[in-house]
UniProtKB/TrEMBL annotation:
It comes from Schizosaccharomyces osmophilus. It holds the Pfam family Nipped-B_C. Residues 1587-1606 have a biased composition (Basic and acidic residues). Belongs to the SCC2/Nipped-B family. This is Sister chromatid cohesion protein. Residues 1304-1485 form the Sister chromatid cohesion C-terminal domain. Keywords: Cell cycle, Coiled coil, Nucleus, Repeat. One of its GO terms (molecular function) is chromatin binding. Residues 1256-1283 form a coiled coil. GO terms for cellular component: Scc2-Scc4 cohesin loading complex. Signal peptide: none annotated. The gene is mis4.
Amino acid sequence: MTPEIPEGTNSPFDLLEALKYTPLVSSIPLSNGTENAVPPKSVASNTPLCLSPEEKELMQRYLDLLEPNAQEVSDVQQLQFYKDALAPMLQDVPMPNIRIPVAKATHEESSFFPNSLLNPLTESLLQPSEVEFVPTDVNSGTSSSFTDSTSSTSTCLSPFISNKDAPKTAEIPRSPSTARILRAVEFKSPSRAFSLTSTPKKRQLSESGSVVSTPSSKVQRLQDVIEKQVHDTQLVLNVILLGDSKTSDCYVSFAGSHVRVISTEIIEKISISLTKLSYLGDCHKLLKEEDAISLKMIIESSLKSLDFVNSSTEDADDDMICSKANYLLKNVSLIFQILNMLPAFKKLQNEESFLFILDTLHSLLDYFFLKTMTSVDMSMIEGSEESNYRPFLSLTQKIANAFTLLSKIVHAIPLSEAVVIKVVFLSMKTITVDSSIKEKPSLIQNLPLDILKVPLFDTLQFIFSLYPAQRDFVLQEVLANFAQLPTARSTSRTFKLSNGKSVQLYSTLLVRLLQACTITHLPEDPTFKTEDPTKDLVNSDYCQSHLNSVDALLSKSRHDEYRVANHIVGYLLGRSLRQTKSDINNSFVTLTRIMLEDLLNMLTVPEWVGTETLVRQFALNLIMMIVKEKNSVTTKNTALDFFSVIVNKLLTTFDISLFEKYDLPVPSNFNDPNCFLSGVPRFEEITSSCLAYLNTLCGNDDSLENIVPYTLNQWISFLFQIRKASNDPESNYLIDKVLLKSSNLNMDSVMDSTVYTNHEIIHDYFVLSLYRSSLYLNLKFFVSLIIGFLDSPQTSLRTKSLRIISQMKSIPAILHAHPEVLSQVVSKVADPSAFVRDTVLDLLSTYMMAFKETINQLYVFIAAGVSDSSVSVRKRALKQLADIYEVTNSINIRCDICMKLLSRMNDEEENITELSLQTLESLWFNNAYLSIDPHKKYDDLSFLEKQKIKVHYRSLLKLSSDPSPALHVSLVTTLKRMLTSKENELTKEFCSRIRFLLSFLFTLLIEVATEDEGNSFEVELLHETMSTLFVLSRSFPFLFDYSQLQVLKPYLKSASNIEEQRLLYYVVAIFRQVLPRQKEIPEGFLRSLETTMLQRLTKAGSATLKEMVPCLCYLLSHLNDDQRLYKILGSCLKTLEETRKNDFSSLKAFRLIELIGLFARFGRLEKIDVDWTGVFSFPKDESTDIYVLLLNYMDHLLSSSNDDLRIHVIENMTKIVLAQPTLFTSSRMLSMLDNIFEENNVDCVSVIFRSFLELLAADEDLISEADEKLESKSNQNKKSKREQVNVDMLKGFTERQWAEGVSACLMQKYLSNILNSCFSKNLNFALLALEILQHIIRQGLANPRLCFPVIVALEASEVEELKQIAINLHTELLQKHESLVDGLYAQAATLMFSSKTFPENFVCTIEEHSVFQGTYNVLLSTKNARSRRKFLMQMLKLLEYDNEKLTNMSHEKILFFNFCCSALGGIKYLSLDEPLMILQVIDTVLATIGPTITEWMKGHFEQPYKFFSGILLCNFIHLKRYLKFVYSITDEKVHNFDSSKTFRDKKVPLRNSGLTAELLHPDNKREDVAVMCIQMFEDENISTDPIVKDELDAPEEEHSGEAGNE
């Protein structure tokens, strides 16, 4: 980007521009730089700059730096400034040819070089072809007198070269430094060239036209520059070479010693002089070899005399060590400079000398650099103000400069093996210098260590390329130091690629080494002279032989590349996948992962073309490790992880649309080389563009010299691959022609070709070339390999495979194209591993969102996840159901999704419940999803918006129309929780959304009323709307208004069929819920409503009647019409008496009894001030209480009722008692209850249980309300969410019907009946009893110890619903009353056995299923090992037998023993200590009773107990053998087990499946039992020594760490 030029004439920008043109190599003194430096675009032709004092100081510092005695500069910004200023001088740019105008001459004369203009020195350095003499007709009068003076001095010879040595002809050898010489004077600008070699006065005269520059003056100035620089350099050298070290001023005594060394000033003068001289030409032609050798020897002697290593001790002065280090680096850099500038002087290249220099650098790094870096670390930690960071930065820069010179030497000069090895060691030592601080990422970021590594990477690359014999050694050293790299990605990735991504430098080193293996120069074919050779020429033997030789060379080169790549990848993966758990190997996995990620980032960058080979080798080696059966699961897991990184990158890299974008034919089969034939011409154009781009990118950088040949070789190798696969002569001719052209490609022509500066195009071109790689060709195989692990027996591999698949960008397309893969994924929905199931759901959801037409097919698998045992899977399923809800148009699926969400509202995990609630609220009431303003009223919406609303709410309407009472209760509960879970402001917003919904529903009612009544769709919509209003009335009755009730009233009409009865029920129920919450309703409306309901009372259905009577009772009470209620009840009693006389079992009698019960339940009859005794015809009691009178009357009816009517009378008696709960404890009611429970009629008892539930539910409502008030009182400073909602208002129309002690009395009296009913064969009756038991436990109405055995016994029920409720109750009791109930498991086992019925000749088996598994899982969920220990101890007490107990053995006890053995053996234990404990007890019992029983079996055992004892012994041994097989337990483990210690839940024991043990039963033959008993006991070889200690009888010890986590 071009910077903006400031407007000021003397701005800092002008100063920088001026500095760029300071005459560094002219003979003008540098002190004149401020006068002569003028910007090129300056208006003033020769006006000195007017500098400010600050600018003068900056300029002076710059000039001081250029002088031989320049001081050290440590400021990074200034260093960069000086570097930018010097950049134009240091850049090796080509210069144009010199055009010298001369007089016309003959052809013979013009063929010779005009020696009159050039002296011998200039002739030796200048190539004649670069000087062109142009004839001119310039008037001789225009020549300047300066020409003569210049010509007269042109015959002066150089003091270093004689005339006889000067060349006499134009055939002068080409010098590569000619451009450097010509750069010193810019011939195209006479004024500027003249200004560099003359005074200001002369320049002024020249510009004014008084003096004209001539060709001879230009050449003379060039000769003056060369001679002056050679003379100055020789003077400096003579001072050193001829001076005495003891007396000469150029030698000084170093601080702290008596050693005389060359002064720093002289060293810098020599360095600057040599630098300037190198810009003018080849130094070996300008300097004497003996002088260079002497200078090098003197510098080396100075280094040896310092003895840096011995002086760099901890006690030495830091300043002195620092000065020695700086001096050492200047000398080393000067030696490297001499070697680099004089590569032709072979005597300078002494091996011993080179090794000494390298050892000196190595010592510097070991003894000083690391110490300095540590001190920088300490200064940063301590926060000291005087930080030594700047001196360290300066030192680092000097070392980097020395290493840069070293890299140039390695590239230019042949080295011995010893020197190469020493250079490699030094390089690796420096590259890993930051390993000592790799645990401090912040420090690594602040230290500029990369400037040390870059030149050393160049050095290693040059060694790798130039010395093939040392490649293995270099690789070994590079890889051996790999583990020392920092593992933090943020600190290690300091190298930025051209695509903007950052990688670590070490990654680039490996690619550079690989690219260094390629052939840089292919053999040329001299016969190939044209772009389009003939077919005969191409098919000639010479051309074919040439192509075969090129193919052989490339094959050998590729073989070397593969070997190097395999060496690198094999080492990295071998260390990463090693099975040891050391920190080094763990960090190696991270480092390899970083390396692999870096390579994948470099894969599509054109300048790192060798990355493809490394990545391909990674993929190949990983595949071998993945499919190798001997490798462990951990190794395969890590390999799969690495492999997934490659596959995911490849899937995101390749895009087949690139072929169409760049007019390339898409191959029909990428694995067939012949399919690429048609695209070869286009691929050739693309390759040429890439080569031109890379050639321009690399420039003259030697470290990038392998990139272009590597890319070209890859292209040629691809052509050879097509050529070998093709059998068509025409195609072969085309390929051979392109091969000849490519193998004879001239790099100069590449430079001249069009270069695409658009990096995106070059990137796409390079990606297109990767389609020829086996990475793309095998991509489908890579994906199928990962998918294959879906069927792996190891859970971790299945999980890893699924996660990899779910991360693939193109996995939906893969599943869609391959149904068999989709089926394979779907089959894992029921996988035993929760991680696998979770990943499968995620993958299926991604696929369904990509291909929405598959939702109907795959929805069932997502829906099944809602009921999964894993919390994570349930969460995943709920979130995915919400996504499906938004994209599907199926009403049935939407309704089912809502059902699934509602089913999780009572989940044991609170997070699941909250997620379900939030999801439902978002799906139903989020108007933002509809893109509708939430503050808009429904009447203000447009027609289109109203249609959206209809579609949106259709699922809620459909759901509410389900007649299931359980669903309605769930909906109402959920809606209320949505309201109560919000803060005040959110509550208002939620209520506004509900009002919006109500407006919509009532508008629908109005619309439906105007439509044709016969339309089935409208009828269905009417029922759905009314049912939704019913649900909302039970949830939010306070949100309805009077206008909406007016809309509802016309629907109170007679019902002639079931659908109309249901509609009437909804309308009446809405009025019942809403009327008590309305404050201002006209009395006329209420009276009209009362009259209408009275008219419908006689023909209403039973369900409608239960809603209508409470509503009528409210209206009569609100209108103070008590007398009408009195008359209604009296009329019912009177009519009932008349009916009794005629037909008491008629439907009319049923209706009248029901009306009496309902009016008594909801009419508040005690508040009516009338004499009730007059309405009863039977003998009156002393009591005048209407409820007692009604109860007595019903009791009187009960005695004369048949079975059906009797149940109906009992039901209405309970309604009367519920109106006055104290009547439950009356003698008459208790006597009736006793009779009912004694009769044990399921129907009658069910009626009583329902009344108990209603009583307990009222109690629970009041208890919950009291808890809420207590909670709000204890949190006065916090706004309770529940405080903001009136609980009475939300509960609906429920009167307080609770009296203290009634429910507790009833539950305790009839608890045994309730518990026994839980084991009823009638499922509904058992569920009813179990629901009562739930209320009893939660309200604390009975001792938990009485209920606990029943609950545990129910966990073995075959009915899943009963089993799940029992498990929940068991968990709740353990949380609240663990100390009370944890000793009752033996009693529960006995009850469990007695509740089961076994068929005749039933054979009990020990297998992988246990009736105790549910109980064990509950104990496991507490994460308390002590609870499990107590459970096992109690179960084992049931198996304890001694010789006395054997005499009481019976048929029933054997069956119970077999039941316990089967249950204990089939449990899936968490800890291995648990089966060990069982086995130890078995051994103890066998040792006690075994000898006695075997003696019985050897004799005649007529007593039944002896036979049963033999069965007992055999089954003990069966249980023992089963446990030992399943858990792979040896006798030694059993013997060494200490049962007094807490269970160790360190690792879940592996189970061997497939064994089933059949236990003996009493029906077996006695002889068979005897033989088996004796044989099995002898085989066990159990010791019968007396037992020293019975662990089961020992008191349990308390252990501090008993809570064993799962």
